[in-house]
Amino acid sequence: LQTLDISGTAIEELPSSIVGLRQLMRLHVEDSTRLPNRLRNLTSLEDLWWARVDSAWTAEELGHLTQLRILGVNLRSDEEGRWDERVCKALVASLGKLHRIQSLLVISDGVAAEGVCKAEGSVEFLSNLSYLAIRTKSLPTWISPASLVLLSYLEIWVVQVRREDIQVLGKLQALRYLKVYVSDHKQVLEKFMISPDVFPCVIECRFHGFTTVPSMFPPGAMPRLEEFRFRIQLEDFSRGEFTADDLALGHLPSLHSVIVCLYGKRNVSEEVVRKVEEKLRHEADVHPNHPMGMSLLQ
């Protein structure tokens, strides 16, 4: 047996006999399914989706699956809601041994999220990653341009995002697809501008949950961007934090599709709404590519 897929089932725990499947290459389970002891015996495993990790022992076992190319990890606190910091340390140490890993997804509950952010250890494994999706509290310190040299796809869910985080992500030289989701919709990110040499290869960019305007990315940034999706909090324009000029799109030469999510329409005057909508439509009209699919979601 080379493939075992029991995702979509209600199986809570895999039987211990599973570890006898030495030829198993692909194992897909639910993110809540408990894995058996001696997981290290599955030496042929290349694709493990998911691995529920709620103990340092389980995290350490993953380090012996050296053929893994695809891995989904669900970091969980114990049944009493407690979190052992040794779990994250063991997980990072194990990932450091997985030199073939190319795709990694890490999600965590509210308690474990803090541990993901602060985990330290070997990050050499990151140099081979082309796909990374992670759900945590803030941008982990180990996400850096020096380590993620081949990363082309990044999807990240955080509670809050800082301007420094956008700058760090912009320095990922191979990045082509970026999706940033912020769960704290009340966050106010002050107006800022990143350096003009960021996001050199990004062709699709989505920012959800916090106000983003095109002026944050000066001429030279995002030269290959084709699809841009961002959010506007209309109160920011009403208070003067942003102006219509911040919505200019002409400095993004490759743009073909723009989707803008407008929020707070009920909290501002009709004039503010009208000016923002008119400016966005005007920018789409005068852009050399006339971006298709200009949408204003409210």
TrEMBL record:
Q: Which Gene3D superfamilies match?
A: Ribonuclease Inhibitor (3.80.10.10)
Q: What keywords sit in the KW lines?
A: Repeat
What the entry lists under Pfam families is as follows:
LRR_14
Residues covered by the Disease resistance R13L4/SHOC-2-like LRR domain: 1-291
Checking InterPro entries in the record gives:
LRR_dom_sf (IPR032675), LRR_R13L4/SHOC2-like (IPR055414)
Alphabetical list of PANTHER family matching this protein: LEUCINE-RICH REPEAT-CONTAINING PROTEIN 57, OS11G0589401 PROTEIN
Indicate what this protein is called per its UniProt record.
Disease resistance R13L4/SHOC-2-like LRR domain-containing protein
Supply the source organism for this entry: Dichanthelium oligosanthes
